[in-house]
Each structure stands twice: as structure tokens, then as C-alpha cells.
Amino acid sequence: MSDKLQKVLANNGVGSRREMETWIQQDRISVNGAVAKLGDRVELTDQIRVDGNLLKRDQKTPVCRVLMYNKPEGELCSRTDPQGRLTVFDRLPAISSGRWIAVGRLDLNTSGLLLFTNDGELANRLMHPRHEVEREYAVRVFGDVEPKTLTLLKKGVELDDGIAKFTDIIARPNEEESINSWFDVTLSEGRNREVRRLWESQGVQVSRLIRLRYGPLSLQKRLPQGAWIELELPDVNALRKQVQLPVETETVVGIGDNKLDHVKLQRMRRSVKKHKARAGTPNKLNADGTVADGGDGQRNRKPNESRSNGGRPGSKGGKGNGGRGKTGTGKPNVGRTRAGTSDANPSKKSSDKTGAKPKRTNPNRKKSTRQQQGQ
Q1: What residues are paired with 30 via a beta bridge?
Q2: What CATH number has the domain bearing residue 11?
């Protein structure tokens, strides 16, 4: 039985079906030595090459796996970045067969729920507008929004790529004297920057955007930013049921692996912090091309510029010194001395300090036997 080429590539974890269609148009795929074209179908015995590399097709369908990732602001939804910025793929676990596929995208300054899967068909269906999978976001906007504006956004407005609308808008209670307003909005498609463009079409500026839910799955509240968990079988099958795929019967997740207790949360936070320190790339770019302060003490620098000392500013050997020990540009060791030494002259003993009394000797003290023999 033959299948569409892009479907076979997606099922083997090469990428999503939309991405594979683009690769086919770019002549990056060949079948049995001939350049593939859109609409080609392949058999199990056909040889498929991607960029000249032979695709090892799994005879057995791999287990469907799904990751839930809490994306922080400042990470790109791409595998690599020529400017050296952090990407959402940097910290994902290794996978033995295929590769992780992002289900949809979030722009640079949007945070929250991002799903990854090794099942190309599942990813394609979750992203396809035909299945109308709901996405829910928390939105913070500047100023107050009039009721007629909210009504218009739910009815539909004309954007550059067609009519768009929110299926639901819920206003959150605002704090007193706050200049911002919070809303929970829902829509059933995922066009590029659609949420921001909808608000901007009404002259409303979005200052923060967080994805809370994708289909039946909501972001776990205790999951730290930059951390991930692998979903258990019931959650995986909830996604598959949403897009009319057969249930998965196997999983690689052990019992209790997803329990976010205090110890696991601490381990996750340390891992995220170490990764950011090793990467040395902050979150955002300034208008002049320098990298903005990422909130962890990083200075402004060009995207590919690395620190000379490999660690925090004012540190030596990549470790923060807190003003102690040997310092680079940190605080000097004024008032911090080793036992028996001083800041002015470390080679002299503490008895040489200003105001210290000299050691007295008793002239009537009985001499030792060795001293008497020497006389």
C-alpha cells in the first residue's frame, strides 16, 4: 500500500507535513534516485533520500510521544539561529528514532505552552485549521478596552490574510490604579501572530502574551519556564482523539515521572539556570543589534560575542564570587584577610599590625637543657 511522500516523511519524524511539502518543492527529497514532486506516493520498498542522506524507515511504527514545554520569552521556535540566540529545541531530550516536531509556533516575545511530538501526522492534524483545535491565551493590553471593541473582535475583523476572530473573550478583574487590562482569549486557528494582529487592528497594543491551553491540554502551573515534561498515555490519547487518530497503547513514561514535587522542581530550575549560563545568550535584541539584558546580569553585547571569562560579569572561571576570593572586576578584598595576615602587607604576621604589642619574654625563665649545653 502506497502513502503520500510527505506523510511518510512526517511519520518518520523528519518534520511536519507542511514542512515536508516545502522541502519537496525545494528539490531536497529524492525517491529511487529521482527528484520527488508534490503528489508522489511511495511504497515501503522505495528508497527515500533527504538532502542526499538515505532515510532509515522504521518497519514498526514508533511509540507516539508528546512533550509539554513552558516556553520563556526570548526563545525562537526554530532549530538553529544565525544570530546565536536560544531556541526551544536546545534543552529537549534526545530521541532514538525521528526527531521532535513543534506543534505550532510562538513568536519571540510570547511565552507559555508549547507541545512537541515525534508523530508527524499528529503534529500536522493539530496544526491544520480543518480540525479547529482551540488555543487559549492570556493577554495583557495597555489601557481600557471598550465593550464594542470586544464585540467586534468576536464577530470578526479583516486582516491581511483574511477574516479572523476570537471565539471567546473573558475579562479578568483589574487591579486598582492599573494601566493594563488582562483578558483570556480563545481562537480555533494559529496563523502567524494572529492574536497580536487582532488586537492591533483595533488600535490596542499587546504588552504580554501567554499561551495557556492547546486543545484539551492546559499548561501545568508548577512547570518552570524553560522546563519540560513528557505526557502520560491519557494526555497523549486526549490529543489523538481531538484530531480523530487511533489511540496509542504504549508509552515510555514511568509511573510518577511527571509528579512535580519539590525536589524535581528544584532540579528543573537548576538545569534551566545552568543551560542559560552555558549558552551565554540573553533573551532579546535591542534596536541597534546588541543583545539586551536578559535579566540574569548579562551585559549588552553583539549576538555572537562571548564573554572573555566564560561566566558572570566580574567573575573568574565562570563562577560568581560574591566579592570573595580572587576577583576580576568584582569587589576587592578590603576588610577580608587571611588568618595572620593584613591587607597592607600579607607577608607579615598579625603581631606586626599597627598598635600590636611585641611579645615579651621572661628573663628569669629557666633555660632548657639544650640551651645550657650550648653555653
Answers
A1: 35, 49
A2: 3.10.290.10
CA angle 315, 319, 321 (to 5 degrees): 60
In terms of residue numbers, what domain contains 182?
134-214
- Integer Cα distance of 335 and 343 in angstroms: 7
pTM of the model: 0.67
- 293 as an active site residue: the answer is no
231 inside domain? no
**Which grid coordinates belong to 186?**
480563545
Rounded to whole angstroms, what are the CA distances from 291 to 1, 86, 178, 277, 308? 52, 12, 30, 15, 16
Whether residue 222 lies inside any domain: the answer is: no
The answer to whether 179 and 142 are in contact (CB under 8 A) is yes
CA 81/CA 87 separation, integer angstroms? 7
- Give the total number of structural domains in the chain: 3
- The CATH number for 165's domain is 3.30.2350.10
Summarize pLDDT for 189-224 with one digit per residue, the tens: 888 899 999 999 999 999 999 999 999 999 998 999
Distances (CA, A) of 126 to 101, 215, 249: 12, 8, 20
pLDDT digits (tens, 9 = 90+) for 96-152: 777 899 999 999 999 999 999 999 889 989 999 899 999 999 999 998 899 999 999
Among the candidates 191, 214, 237, a domain finishes at 214
- Which residue among the candidates 27, 107, 261, 343 is catalytic per the annotation? 107
- Would you say residue 141 lies in a domain? yes
Specify the amino acid at residue 193: R
